[in-house]
Specification:
This protein folds into 2 domains: 205 residues, Rossmann fold (3-Layer(aba) Sandwich), CATH 3.40.50; 32 residues, no CATH class. The termini are far apart. By secondary structure, the chain is an alpha/beta fold. The chain contains 8 helices and 7 strands.
Length: 256
């Protein structure tokens, strides 16, 4: 029997990158998977592809995770269609990088809207259901940027806030047999990081090679590296792990 058979896994921002890799990992291990994204066409294509390649039952919904009404409707629709939610992965995110003196209030607010408000709203909505069932797993996506990163005052603050949120949610939800953990990826080869390289006028492959030099394991991360940790945290093997921040960066947790 596969680890997640008969379970329903919800992945926000699941249409691409790390979110899609996480969804694929759970699907290949027997779960029914629900993807959400703000881009309806993209999430629809992702869901079709995931179902075709894994044979899993895959649902998809359009949702702005920072909009309270949309989140409440989204979770209600998932429960109506799938019956229950066993795992929530709060992966939806955006970047609006800039140096502090250039950063607009709008760019600050957008990052907080998606990362912090979105994680709060989705967790609050899903935990009601999990508390009733007295079981559930929640994984939040933080980042090594939580340790501080030039040009990312908004993103770094949001990702650090997610770590505090994770610890607090683990304390409050633990009595109901709900595990809450966070993953803090380092440099992961995704569409987002490739766009960052091009925005800086650097070839993406050269950028990866440059970043790999500072990683003890000598390579950059892949989305599957994060998906593997997410699956572990949501498995019975990690039933006594909660309130933890797992750095997945090819080396120790240190300030960069």
């Amino acid at each position: 029997m596969k680890r997640f058979e008969e379970q329903v896994v919800l992945v926000t921002g699941g249409a691409r990158g790390i979110g899609y890799a996480i969804a694929e990992k759970f699907a290949r291990e027997g779960a029914s998977v629900v993807l959400s994204d703000v881009d309806g066409a993209t999430v629809g294509e992702a869901a079709t592809q995931l179902a075709a390649t894994t044979g899993a039952r895959v649902g998809h919904f359009v949702c702005d995770v920072g909009d309270e009404a949309q989140v409440e409707q989204f979770i209600a629709d998932v429960l109506a269609s799938f019956g229950h939610i066993d795992v929530l992965v709060n992966n939806a995110g955006v970047t609006r990088d800039n140096l502090l003196f250039k950063m607009s209030a709008e760019d600050w607010d957008m990052v907080m809207h998606v990362h912090l408000r979105g994680t709060f709203l989705c967790t609050r909505a899903v935990q009601r259901h999990m508390v009733e069932r007295r079981r559930g797993k929640i994984v939040n996506l933080s980042s090594t940027s939580a340790l501080g990163n030039r040009g990312q005052a908004n993103y770094s603050t949001a990702k650090a806030g997610l770590q505090a949120f994770t610890r607090t949610a683990a304390i409050e939800l633990g009595p109901y047999n709900i595990n809450v953990n966070a993953i803090a990826p380092g440099f992961i080869d995704t569409e987002m990081t490739r766009k960052t390289a091009m925005r800086r006028g650097i070839d993406p492959e050269e950028y990866k090679a440059m970043r790999a030099k500072s990683i003890p394991l000598g390579r950059v991360g892949q989305p599957a590296d994060i998906a593997n940790v997410a699956a572990f945290l949501c498995s019975e093997d990690a039933s006594f792990v909660s309130g933890q921040i797992i750095y997945v960066k090819g080396g120790p947790e240190t300030l960069r």
